[in-house]
């Protein structure tokens, strides 16, 4: 039985005070959220500590947005799994397209980060997806299969979440057609050794399209950027109508 996982990725938004304000507004909407839906907030490092102390009994779980492959060392600007787990973090986004595009993340470093996350007790959310140019050239499948093949070397698929995020749909309002997202996610699943890995869709998920997206049989959740920044909006996504 695959888990349903709804995760907000705040990216570089919200100070600590703003994060706490969000949480106050958000948790009041979770009373009727079905227990089998995992709700995760992947927030800036600076907000992890105070959110962790205010999570109200664990209905909301915490995620970070990156993790280094070493536990400690001379790696200015990086953060390690022990530093995150000490703060009560359970999940971490790895290989987001913004990391790959702007910060030189490669499939090799993604693989190292995935393994370190798991060794350190974190469940990674691995992001894969194609650019518009790759889609137009008919290279979507080949690109994603290549990412999976390299990123997942020696990665434990019993402690893994994957997010299919077509890059052209991120932050653009140009959502991937739900049936097409379902098709690609089915293909991703066909490449995994563990069919129970939850696979999310990400890319302009909103309160207005989440019901259709979540109705697709292969889609196990959503990784939500912009629409996770407002409590009511993310609550509507988490409380999608099945
Ligand atoms: O990690 C989240 C994705 O990049 C999606 O962002 P978005 O919902 O703002 O399109």
UniProtKB/TrEMBL annotation:
Keyword set for this entry?
Cytoplasm, Gluconeogenesis, Glycolysis, Isomerase
Q: What is its EC number?
A: 5.3.1.1
An annotated Gene Ontology molecular function? triose-phosphate isomerase activity
InterPro entries documented for this protein: Aldolase_TIM, TIM_sf, TrioseP_Isoase_bac/euk, Triosephosphate_isomerase, Triosephosphate_isomerase_AS
Q: In which pathway does it act?
A: Carbohydrate biosynthesis; gluconeogenesis; Carbohydrate degradation; glycolysis; D-glyceraldehyde 3-phosphate from glycerone phosphate: step 1/1
**Family (UniProt):** Belongs to the triosephosphate isomerase family.
The protein, known as: Triosephosphate isomerase
The organism is: Phormidium yuhuli AB48
**This protein's encoding gene:** tpiA
């Amino acid at each position: 039985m695959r888990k349903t996982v709804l995760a907000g990725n705040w990216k570089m938004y919200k100070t600590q005070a703003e994060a706490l304000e969000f949480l106050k507004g958000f948790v009041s909407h979770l009373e009727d959220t079905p227990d089998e839906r995992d709700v995760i907030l992947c927030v800036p490092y600076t907000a992890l500590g105070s959110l962790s102390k205010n999570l109200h009994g664990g209905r909301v779980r915490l995620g970070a947005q990156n993790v280094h492959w070493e536990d400690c060392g001379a790696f200015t600007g990086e953060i390690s799994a022990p530093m995150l787990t000490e703060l009560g973090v359970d999940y971490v986004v790895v290989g987001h397209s913004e990391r790959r595009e702007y910060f030189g993340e490669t499939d090799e470093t993604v693989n190292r980060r995935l393994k370190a996350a798991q060794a350190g007790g974190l469940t990674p959310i691995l992001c894969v997806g194609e650019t518009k140019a790759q889609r137009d050239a008919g290279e979507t499948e080949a690109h994603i299969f290549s990412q999976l093949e390299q990123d997942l070397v020696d990665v434990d698929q019993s402690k893994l979440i994957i997010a299919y995020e077509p890059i052209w749909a991120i932050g653009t309002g140009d959502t991937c057609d739900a049936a097409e997202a379902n098709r690609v996610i089915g293909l991703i699943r066909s490449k995994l050794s563990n069919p129970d890995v939850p696979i999310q869709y990400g890319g302009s998920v909103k309160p207005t399209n989440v019901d259709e997206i979540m109705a697709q049989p292969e889609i196990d959740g959503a990784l939500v950027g912009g629409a996770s920044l407002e409590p009511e909006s993310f609550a509507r996504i988490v409380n999608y109508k099945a």
